[in-house]
């Protein structure tokens, strides 16, 4: 088929579909005239009581209007107000205003809150498997994580495991690939990792511990002074956009490319009872607005990191890559951590198997497509 005949045939198909659509809607309209009870059935699925504004209390683990993560949630709330014609309102509580930053999981589980925006890696104490929904070192990228969640069975597992806490999660954003962190001295070999005091949470921290480092957990507000005073030698955070705001470059100018958080999933999670009680239309609006937030946040991180990267030179930042010996050791340690955690927790084992299987297939496709392209670009 040449291009012209293809276009003609495509145009005909489109016209046929449009006509078919017209016939369909005509038929429905005629049916409604002939059978008024059918109209009533249709109306009965409209569950919103427009006389009452439904308000959902959502707490976040971020300061109010925190760049990208917090502002993303702000936009989600105003979007809901717009598309629901104010029949649904999201009231946002920034961290520590209603519950502590990391109290949002329990408060939503118990019904004190209707929902929260945070990251599943924070809840590994509830179930170590939860951290995997955020991603894992040397694992899936942001785009691949969304693929696994939406089309690879990941979301099913996440909802099944959260249901035990009366919670209903959604992927609510992603930090995109994170940087490996800020170091006071360059890392030339594995020797430089030994005894290193580094602020690095989650599975990445466990991997660093296997390499001989001393991973330390610190709240955001204490990282800079700890780095300045030598309480820690290094810290990871997110990427150029958020990291430069923290000023780490002033005391630890060696900034390394990352391996430990290749795309960290954030979550918008609801109390399951609250979610089930919502009108179907409100559920659909929330689903759409969360999907929008999820997509926008990844793009915003990509764009703002791109902008921030251009300033690093003038701030005296020295961009670095870890030596291959460190990367090889970290990869091997990651496999050990994942295998040890799988032995300890059958939930972790199931989620890890699902994600790892997806990763294997995804690597095959990414290697012949994106990786090739990035190499030749
Ligand atoms: Ca991080």
Morphology: globular
Q: What is the chain-wise order of helices and strands?
A: HHEHEHEHHEEEHEHEHEEHHEHHH
Return the average pLDDT rounded to an integer: 90
- Which sequence of strands runs across the widest sheet? 7-6-8-5-9-11
Number of domains: 2
Determine the number of helices (DSSP H or I, runs of at least 4 residues). Answer: 14
Describe the protein.
The protein has 377 residues and is an alpha/beta fold. It has two domains: 159 residues, D-Maltodextrin-Binding Protein, domain 2 (3-Layer(aba) Sandwich), CATH 3.40.190; 132 residues, Periplasmic binding protein-like II (D-Maltodextrin-Binding Protein, domain 2). 51% of the residues lie in helices and 13% in strands. The chain contains 14 helices and eleven strands. The strands form two sheets. Strands 7-6-8-5-9-11 form a six-stranded mixed beta sheet. It has a five-stranded mixed beta sheet with strand order 2-1-3-10-4. The two termini are 33 Å apart. The chain binds calcium ion. The site of calcium ion has 5 residues, from loops.
